Amino acid sequence: MYEYIKGSVAFVGPEYIVIENGGIGFQILTPNPFAFSKYEQQTVTVYVHQHVREDVLALYGFMSIEEKRLFEKLISVSGIGPKGALAVLASGEPHQVISAIEEEDEKFLIKFPGVGKKTARQMILDLKGKLADVVPEFFPNLFQPDGLEPTRAASADLEEALLALEALGYSAREIKRVSTKLKAEQLTTDQYIRKGLQLLLNG
């Protein structure tokens, strides 16, 4: 079992990144691949979870050990698979998810792709009161936009962000609704994704 992979960021796409280590390119699915854009061709440490099924062997990667632990807690819930857990973490506001679980706020939880009332209730039953070991006191400040400098045309960044939202499971109707508001912004791909997720979650 892998704990982390340290290597250079060789590729960043809407669904995954590629980390090159020892001449091998590891395809790693992440909540927000474009958060790694500013590290392309640089060495990074990615905390990974290896997911094994009969027909699938995949690596899921995260920027911090806390994010990885929360992911593992989420996929332990019946009805939430790795893709659903990534969509939850991609919001960039994990503390909101934790607060919703602790406060039994089903209305907030069902806003995530693939999370219905039954799954939201299961999340609360399985995880309420069990996340203290995952979340240090600084957790509310994790995964916030870090002021990345734009490196490409905003239209290209927006297009990539919309593809990333689609990969997370949001419908074309939902994406179209937020894209109109996003077009008025001048952001990086990572920031577009975070802003779009905030708009989707806030209804």
The total strand number stands at: 5
CATH class of the largest domain: Mainly Alpha
Strand order of the largest sheet: 1-2-3-5-4
Please state the CA-atom Rg, rounded to the nearest Å.
16 Å
Shape label: globular
CATH topology of the largest domain, anyone?
A: DNA polymerase, domain 1
Spans where pLDDT lies below 50 across 5 or more residues: 137-152
Major sheet summary line: 5 strands, mixed, barrel
Assembly context of the chains: single chain
Q: State the helix count.
A: 8
Helix content: 25-40%
Descriptive report:
This protein is of the alpha+beta class and 203 residues long. The chain is built from 8 helices and 5 strands, in the order E-E-E-E-E-H-H-H-H-H-H-H-H. The protein has 3 domains: 4-62, OB fold (Dihydrolipoamide Acetyltransferase, E2P), CATH 2.40.50.140; 65-141, 5' to 3' exonuclease, C-terminal subdomain (DNA polymerase, domain 1); 154-201. Strand 4 (43-52) and strand 5 (57-62) form a beta hairpin. Helix 1 (65-75) packs across helix 2, helix 6 (154-167) runs antiparallel to helix 7 (172-182) and helix 7 packs across helix 8 (189-201). The model is unreliable at 137-152 (pLDDT under 50).
Structural key phrases:
single chain; 203 residues; alpha+beta; OB fold (Dihydrolipoamide Acetyltransferase, E2P); DNA polymerase, domain 1; 3 domains; five-stranded mixed β-barrel; globular; nucleotide-binding
